[in-house]
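Narrative of activities, Objective 1.

The group set out to show that a structural description can be obtained from nothing but a protein's sequence at a throughput compatible with the screening campaign. Below is one input-output pair from the validation batch, recorded exactly as produced.
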Amino acid sequence: LMRTKIPHIRLRLVPRIRDEGRDLDHILQLAKDLSVDDLITVDGPFPLERMPEIMREADLGIYPANIDCHMDVALSLKIPEMLSVGLPVIATRLTVLEDLYGEECIAFTNDRDPQAFADKVIELFRSPELRERMVIAGRKRSKELDWTVQYRAYLNVIRELLGEPGA
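Output recorded for this entry:
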């Protein structure tokens, strides 16, 4: 859906372990069946410490989750990682992502709708200004959600529950 509208488009997959398993095999077979396997590369695995550098090499981060009762509330750490390194992100519209990040940080799309996903990628490709706004908003929100900030908020909640003065 995007190949003719975005020159040189590529999907780079970086699995955690070599020969990731059936899911990766399924993706690669599906790509072959759809005649888009020439657009996909599989690299790595790489040491965890290299992931920020590898993420910065990308133009766009994607998180195409299938919505279910678990995924709708479970935060994948890939989202804050991608946002904190300055990647614009396209993700399935999940409650957890809407609540934590919102439309200004993430370009949302519906699950199981390839056309909507492709349209969103093309929109971001054609709008460097939108990507830049998302990057700025994503980095700002990442700082607000940083553990050092959240630790203090959590500690204050505990102190308040214990009835400590000045909580």
